[in-house]
Design a protein that fits this description.
Length: 125
């Protein structure tokens, strides 16, 4: 687990829980392998952020689990989108093309995050 730089020796999980503790009643955190985690069937998400394994299979699995539950107008973000992980970037680009009808906006935050907003209704392409 990455624990240097801005994290000051702490794990990402420690930093996340500390920074979200005041909002915990409004946040549902699903932590685990997207192929195994039990996701409540009725769960709807306004935002999901994916920062997991960087293989095409896991990126696609994480996306499928989250995107199917993102409400119209909601967003999904991916970490590690950039030149350092070309296979991850190519997989995310393919997902964008495959789901273009349902995406109203795509934006990046340099150096390595990309976000997709779910359209209120499918678009004509």
């Amino acid at each position: 687990m990455y624990t240097s730089g801005l994290l000051r020796g702490r794990s990402q999980w420690e930093v996340y829980t500390r920074n979200t503790r005041h909002y915990a009643a409004n946040i549902v955190t699903l932590r685990g392998d997207s192929r195994e985690v039990a996701v409540p069937p009725a769960l709807k998400l306004c935002f999901a952020f994916i920062d997991g394994k960087h293989t095409p299979e896991y990126i696609r699995s994480d996306f499928d689990v989250a995107w199917s539950r993102i409400v119209p107008g909601g967003a999904i973000g991916f970490d590690d989108y950039g030149h350092e992980l070309p296979e991850a970037m190519q997989t995310i680009d393919r997902l964008i093309l495959e789901n273009a009808r349902d995406i109203s906006e795509v934006w990046t935050i340099k150096p390595k995050e990309i976000f997709l907003r779910k359209a209120a209704r499918p678009r004509e392409i």
